[in-house]
Write a structure and sequence with these properties.
By secondary structure, this protein is an alpha+beta fold. It is built from 5 helices and 7 strands. It folds into 2 domains: about 5-95 and about 175-220, FAD/NAD(P)-binding domain (3-Layer(bba) Sandwich); about 100-165, no CATH class. The longest helix is centred in the last third of the chain and has 16 residues, at about 150-165.
């Protein structure tokens, strides 16, 4: 599994639970699982639980070439490590945001990773009246659909103020980081970025998300 974020961890746990004799390896670009948005304590906690499930971790490395699923054998990482006799390679890292059209505004509007540079008002620097929200913005936070509501609570009033010729008073100060990462049905960790940062263990991850990965809740929210 290429990518040790929440998706990669959850997928590894699901595979190990359904097929306990299957060898699973996570290749992750950072020194710990998840990203540095989250505290070291949580990342270390999840790493220990992943290893306890017999999942192999290769950190600070990448898989650059994804072989044909029908003809996978050995997989070689960027640093030359060989994962032998692989049956399947799964991409579980984030993709580049679809922001190429914003380049029409001129040079310097995007970061090297393709995210849109914004001021705390979520307006683009040097482009009055142009706002951005969602996963495309360059903000040090985990990309989650949940945060889009917080973005829009800043963008909408500021956009209306701009149209009225008034100063923009709403600023985005970030959102509280929250995540639940199950490792199979019975293990995992949850994190709430309040107070000193609250980390909850297996029982919480299992109760909240481990049983069905919130599929039933998502289905109902989409009226499906």
């Amino acid at each position: 599994i290429a990518g040790g974020g929440a998706v990669g961890i959850e997928l590894a746990g699901e595979i190990r639970e359904a097929h306990p004799n299957t060898k699973v390896t996570i290749v992750h670009s950072e020194t710990r699982l998840l990203s540095d948005v989250y505290p070291e304590k949580l990342r270390k906690n999840l790493e220990q639980k992943v290893l306890a499930q017999g999942i192999t971790l290769i950190d600070q490395d990448y898989i650059d070439v994804f072989p044909d699923p029908l003809f996978v054998t050995d997989v070689v990482t960027r640093k030359g490590k060989t994962i032998k006799d692989a049956d399947l390679v799964i991409q579980a890292f984030g993709s580049r945001p679809n922001t190429d059209v914003i380049n029409t505004l001129g040079a310097g509007v995007l970061t090297e990773a393709g995210h849109v540079k914004v001021k705390p008002t979520l307006e683009l620097p040097d482009h009055p009246g142009v706002f951005a929200a969602g996963d495309i913005i360059d903000w040090h936070e985990q990309k989650q659909a949940l945060k889009s509501g917080s973005h829009m609570s800043v963008v909408v009033p500021n956009l209306l103020s701009f149209l009225r010729g008034q100063s923009q008073k709403k600023v985005y100060k970030g959102s509280t980081e929250m995540i639940v990462v199950p490792i199979g049905r019975l293990h995992g960790s949850g994190y709430f970025g309040v107070l000193w940062g609250v980390i909850l263990g297996d029982w919480f991850a299992s109760m909240i998300k481990g049983k069905d990965l919130l599929v039933d809740m998502s289905r109902k929210s989409l009226n499906y």
